[in-house]
Predict the 3D structure of the following.
Amino acid sequence: MNKSAQNKLGQNQPDLNRPASNIVLETRDLHRTYREGDLVVPVLMGINLAIHQGEMMAIVGASGSGKSSLMQLMGGLDQPSAGEVWLAGHLLSAQGEAARGKLRNQHLGFVYQAHHLLPEFTALDNVAMPLLIRRMPRKAAHARAKALLKAVGLDARAAHRPAELSGGERQRVAIARALVTEPSVVLADEPTGNLDSHSSDSVFQAMLELNHSMGTAIVLVTHDRALAGRMQRILTMQDGLLVG
């Protein structure tokens, strides 16, 4: 990213002094320790991970192994105890909260097990919301949102509110919302965990097709080994480390 773009983000970081690459998200010796009174619980023990443009990666592991903690750190929603997270060439810990928010809005999309749609808004408005937060004109934001809803097979449901949609449809709306900003990476934490096999496959196909058409990297945390097996790369969280 050029200096002008960096200044717009309010950044003041040193030059990376390294050649450009297609790495869009990277962790370096990442640690996360939680404290409960006198009890110290180490969860992440030095994670080194590089996500490349257009890559589809699965992270699997036992419940409580630290997968979701890693996703929170990669998404800039939590601070590491030690180590670094780099997003699109920017060190997240060097940014203020406003600058981190801009980076997340520009480069990241999130899909969770609970879809987190706003119940009072239509599917169209839910998908358009990240663009409206950017202060994009409503007409342009709705046009982009309609295109994404069509891409996930829900253009006919644009005027429906979340309560009027099935579980699989709600997750496809969430995927469209995650991708409407054309992010570098989508972080998907158990996005099919609450769905039946048919709905799960529909959601995965929507993610796969949008990955192919947009070149967005997708990092999927899942307990579903069959689903993970359909990704390009599988890593397992074990003893605070990623192995593959």
About this structure: The chain has one domain: 3-243. Residues 65 and 239 are 7 Å apart (CA to CA). The domain at 3-243 is CATH 3.40.50.300 (Rossmann fold). DSSP finds eight helices and ten strands in the chain.
